[in-house]
Amino acid sequence: MNLEDYLHQNAQRYPDKVAVVCGDTSLTYAQLWQEVARRAQDFHPHEVVCFRSSQDIDFLVTYMAVHLAGGVAAPLEHGMPDTLFERISSAVAHSFTLHSSLPIADILYTTGTTGQSKGVMVSHCALIADAENLIAGQGFSHDLVFIINGPLNHIGSLSKIWPCIILGATILIIEGMKDLNAFFRALDTPPSSFLLPPSSKLKFATFFVPATIRMILQFAPDRLASYAHKLDFIESGAAPLPQTDMKRLCELLPHTRLYNTYASTETGIIATYNYNDKRCMANCLGRPMPHSKILITPDGLIACQGDTLMSGYVGDPELTATVLRDDTVFTSDVGILDEEGMLHLSGRASDVINVGGFKVSPIEVEEAAMASPMVSDCICISASHPVTGRALKLLVVTPPGQKLDKRTLARYLADRLEPYKVPMLYEQVDTIARTYNGKLDRKFYLTP
């Protein structure tokens, strides 16, 4: 069954169940199916439909209508310039003729943090396998309300729609997390908005990038804790989550499942770990989920197998062959599998900094720095040095009103890291550059 088969099935099983809410508008499963079936008449089989992502019900209708018509959905950034949108639309339509025999559901464009943005082809099989991995690994359920707060053209948020539709759960879409009040208002949504009796107890879940978690912990920790009884689980992904933030969330939400997930557009949803397990292991991403398998190459890189893998990069078989071989996606992520079969991430091979012959993962330095009360945000980069040639440099955002005490921070890190991992250089900055989906933008700081 494809995603739209599940939608049709749920429209018959639960016609009056609310499928999606956005602002003051909502659609039941019967209504959503009707809208999708009507919109599908606007599209054609094997057609690649590029459309701008939007945080509304219309996105959901268009996305599934393209599938229902037998087409391929290619959601692009909402704010993409018209010239770039037209260029990608033309290129992808031309290139996809090479893959027209493949059962492709989506072409999702990566954020380009490791290079030029690429169009990743996701099959209908992979889409369902991703959904079933999330259902098994995180406990999605029929009575769940999942709050979508991130851009729906990226797998982080888009993938949460899939298990909700399969199970007949409810999707609640908000504009984003720039306004924290919007998220908390979503948690205050009354049962009547879901056509439920006033006495009904709602359970919510959501997906946050680590930068959003840090923002909530800085500005609204007590308010988040006040909703602990409503939050079934929170997933984080897209970038490493500092252990200090993990522990703080566990304190605020002691009975909420808190997941750290290993996933990418190319691999699909692979592994997840509930760090609210009394151990709270840093950089742990859990065991592979039912449709996935993880291998560690001789070079220490993570490789993934299973039904969730991409079908390739659209129009680029040469690039595809560098990543996807023998039904295995070879990533640039460095990791290990422990004795429990749990995946632990060390960082990206390309991010490792070579200082005086020693190889340093910047993630380890950032993890140690983030545990200091002197640091609100940071990034460890490679910088030129008149004596050593290259040296570690830590860019630091301090709490409001505080000035960075470089010597004190250096001593703090020296108590927690090997000597060669302690940065030689420190600089206080106002902000740390991040990508659209909250990852540290390491390319922004690259220097010769």
Would you write up a description of this structure?
With 448 residues, the protein is α/β, with parallel strands linked by helices. It has helices at residues 3-13, 29-40, 57-68, 82-95, 124-138, 155-167, 180-187, 210-219, 221-225, 243-252, 317-323, 362-370, 406-414, and strands at 18-22, 25-28, 48-52, 72-76, 104-109, 119-123, 144-148, 170-173, 203-208, 231-236, 257-264, 268-274, 284-288, 292-296, 301-306, 312-313, 324-325, 328-337, 343-348, 353-355, 358-360, 377-385, 389-397, 425-428. Strands 1, 2, 7, 8, 9, 10, 11, 12, 13, 14, 15, 17, 18 and 19 form a 14-stranded mixed beta sheet that branches. The protein has a three-stranded antiparallel beta sheet with strand order 5-6-16. A hairpin with a 3-residue loop joins strand 11 and strand 12 (268-274). It is globular, with a radius of gyration of 22 Å. The chain starts with a helix and ends in a 20-residue tail after the last strand. The model has no long low-confidence stretch (mean pLDDT 93).
